Amino acid sequence: MTNAHPFWIAFGDVHDHLENIDRIPDLAQAAKVIITGDLTILGGVAEAKRVVDHVRAINPRILAQIGNMDLAPVEAWLEGEGLGMHRKAMELAPGLGLMGVGWSTPTPFGTPSEASDAQLKTWLDETYEKAREFKHLILVSHTPPLGGKSDVIGSGAHVGSQAVRDFIDRVKPDLCLTGHIHEARSVEKIGETLVINPGEFASGGYVRVDFDGRVVTAELKDARA
What we know:
The protein is of the alpha/beta class and 225 residues long.
């Protein structure tokens, strides 16, 4: 028996690890598979295509954006394939929209696709102008918001984005799907917004998102369970 309402499956920080894709229940039935960033580890189009093709073999309805560890040509390739969601807004279901912002703020490692927090703010603001019409909104931000559970590294420091945090505080999207900080697998509320970081995909974390036409719900799950 299938659900009467649509659902979506989201994960990120794949970093070329494909084995858990096959372990996600109902992946084939998802209205969209949302890859939140970091398909590869310093990979280009060939490596990203390997990830996307593995998902496409199960479910061709994909949205994806690059994270900081993907090379710039991957973004253009995703756009050319009609899969890109970085700096885009789109309707997922009547009354429900999604907007995506990939890349990340600067890291100590000088990864390929980093942008300043000011640039992230510009991207968030510009993309939101395309998403204002939606009564319910999902933000997909590779970089987590500053100061919550989703941006804490092993030392205990918070390394998220002030721009993402300010956006959440101001706009109050129903849900923020994030990643980037592998060890910060978490679920929390920031104001009215549910924020979920499923952690690195090699550890099995993914998110199932449901929408009954009135309420967005999301649950952190483990593909290895």
